[in-house]
């Protein structure tokens, strides 16, 4: 697989500038201990090359245009020049490509070696026998330390989710849901988890159709119960990609923000303030939305009737790896209501025809929480499962980081470390201007450091922490995760419940 320039497998020829970025895959190719089936290794190499190409393409297209403008006509000569000069002329890009390739390879290595080490525990936890890896789909979600959530297919047809971080929060969430199921008689779905400390394996939740009208009514009843659960816990980020309609079960599949602290500086522009979302409301989780808040309809966890498709601009590469190569855009329609909306007889079924089932589920669960205040705050509280959990704090929406990294692909930034770093700092610091913002400079520094490493910044903390990034001198949260839940318990009331039902009815009527 250590190929000379121009001798490239047929399936790779559609990747722009593949001959230029191919040398950066040497670290991946040289990993002899990967022990993957040849076709899987080819697939992963293609994935890596696509990511490297995307990182480099803005710079390389600018160079290609200069090459053509100078009167040159030999594309192979352009490739040779760029292979020889890229590291010298674009040291930032060179480093990014090397880091991305090394991280990608280490990520694959970790999945395989950890699977081999854990295979007996995996078989026991998930009731499997004599399994081996037959496929890997990488990076479902944000990357951190070069790794991301990935899907692993096994020889018996089973799929598992590999998470390169602590998964104890999912254990705790399952335990709390079991308590809710006993109280509400809702039978909300939980799933198996193998917690291995700094990483873990999680049961894959299949998207499945419902088989009857009764199942649809049960689905939306459970969805109402689940909305009440996220309200009590103070959950965030339960958008359409984090919810699966698995038969008659709505399932939240990512629990890293299922509990959240409350930031104490109201002068910062939070998601709630930006979109006029009331605190301690059913709108915070993004499972539902109100049109008068300004929150985007396309992200809604439970969906919005009529919002199944969204019009977008799609990036298309024309004539890759020729002098006539260019990026074009076209208007396309893509599905947003996919795995988060239940399907019956081949059609999506939204809450509108089942709103009373939904409201009943919400009301029953809310009433249980309201009548269980003493138990929820007692020494035997089911909330004790969340104590000392590691979770993730959303400092700012991740799409902001992605937009910044996309902008910084310009050649002028890729040619100079100082320019790249200062521009990154300036763009991130816009949210920190104003009185008393110097106190939070350590957060800005942390963001810059992680993004310079090619990561989307993630803030990990324990559920009882009042601080971020190990800066214990500054109490940054008004309520930590546990305190926030207890505060919300105190605020439960009949009047508050009726207000939430009004929010629900507004969502249904969009």
* Average pLDDT score: 89
Name the helicity range.
40-55%
Helix count equals: 16
- What percent of residues are in strands? 5-15%
Q: Main beta sheet, described?
A: 5 strands, antiparallel
Approximate shape:
globular
What is the number of strand segments?
Answer: 15
Helices and strands: which structural class? Answer: alpha+beta
Pfam families: DUF4135
Organism: Nibrella viscosa
Domain Lantibiotic biosynthesis protein dehydration: 90-461
Protein name: Lantibiotic biosynthesis protein dehydration domain-containing protein
Quick rundown:
By secondary structure, this protein is an alpha+beta fold. The protein has helices at 18-21, 26-29, 38-69, 75-89, 91-125, 168-184, 213-233, 271-274, 355-371, 373-376, 398-407, 411-414, 417-429, 441-452, 481-491, 494-508; strands spanning 133-137, 150-154, 159-163, 193-195, 200-203, 243-246, 249-252, 262-263, 309-318, 326-335, 343-344, 347-348, 390-393, 459-462, 477-479. A 5-stranded antiparallel sheet has the order 1-2-3-5-4, sandwiched between helices. It has a two-stranded antiparallel ribbon with strand order 6-7.
């Amino acid at each position: 697989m250590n190929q000379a320039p121009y001798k490239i497998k047929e399936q790779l020829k559609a990747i722009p500038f593949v001959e230029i970025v191919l040398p950066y895959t040497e670290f991946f190719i040289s990993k002899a201990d990967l022990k993957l089936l040849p076709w899987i290794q080819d697939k992963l190499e293609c994935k890596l090359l696509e990511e490297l190409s995307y990182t480099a393409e803005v710079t390389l297209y600018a160079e290609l245009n200069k090459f053509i403008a100078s009167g040159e006509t030999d594309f192979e000569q352009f490739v040779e020049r760029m292979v020889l000069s890229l590291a010298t002329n674009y040291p930032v890009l060179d480093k990014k490509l090397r880091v991305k390739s090394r991280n990608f390879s280490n990520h694959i290595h970790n999945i395989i070696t950890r699977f081999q080490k854990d295979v007996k525990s995996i078989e026991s936890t998930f009731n499997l026998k004599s399994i081996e890896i037959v496929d890997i789909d990488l990076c479902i979600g944000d990357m951190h330390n070069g790794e991301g959530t990935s899907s692993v297919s096994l020889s018996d047809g089973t799929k598992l989710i590999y998470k390169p971080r602590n998964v104890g929060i999912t254990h705790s969430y399952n335990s709390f849901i079991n308590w809710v199921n006993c109280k509400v008689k809702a039978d909300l779905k939980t799933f198996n988890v193998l917690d291995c400390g700094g990483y873990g394996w999680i049961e894959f939740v299949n998207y499945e159709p419902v088989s009857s009208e009764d199942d649809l009514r049960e689905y939306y009843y459970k969805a109402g119960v689940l909305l009440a659960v996220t309200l009590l816990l103070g959950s965030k980020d339960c958008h359409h990609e984090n919810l699966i309609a698995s038969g008659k079960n709505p399932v939240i599949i990512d629990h890293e923000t299922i509990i959240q602290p409350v930031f104490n500086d109201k002068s910062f522009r939070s998601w709630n303030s930006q979109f006029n979302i009331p605190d301690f409301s059913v709108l915070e989780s993004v499972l539902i939305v109100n049109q008068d808040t300004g929150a985007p309809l396309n992200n809604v966890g439970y969906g919005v009737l009529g919002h199944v498709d969204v019009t977008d601009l799609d990036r298309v590469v024309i004539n890759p790896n020729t002098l006539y190569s260019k990026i074009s855009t076209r208007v396309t329609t893509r599905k947003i209501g996919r795995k988060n909306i239940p399907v019956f007889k081949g059609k999506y079924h939204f809450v509108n025809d089942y709103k009373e089932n939904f409201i009943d589920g919400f009301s029953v669960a809310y009433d249980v929480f309201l009548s269980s205040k003493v138990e929820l705050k007692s020494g035997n509280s089911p909330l004790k499962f969340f104590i000392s959990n590691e979770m993730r704090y959303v400092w700012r929406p991740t799409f902001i980081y992605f937009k910044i990294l996309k902008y910084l692909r310009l050649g002028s930034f890729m040619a100079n470390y100082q320019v790249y770093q200062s521009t990154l700092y300036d763009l991130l610091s816009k949210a920190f201007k104003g009185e008393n913002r110097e106190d939070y400079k350590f957060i800005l520094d942390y963001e810059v450091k992680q993004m310079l490493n090619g990561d989307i910044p993630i803030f990990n903390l324990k559920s009882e922490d009042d601080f971020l990034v190990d800066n214990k001198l500054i109490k940054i949260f008004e309520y930590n995760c546990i305190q926030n839940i207890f505060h919300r318990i105190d605020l439960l009331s009949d009047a508050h419940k009726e207000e939430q039902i009004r929010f629900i009815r507004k969502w249904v009527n969009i």
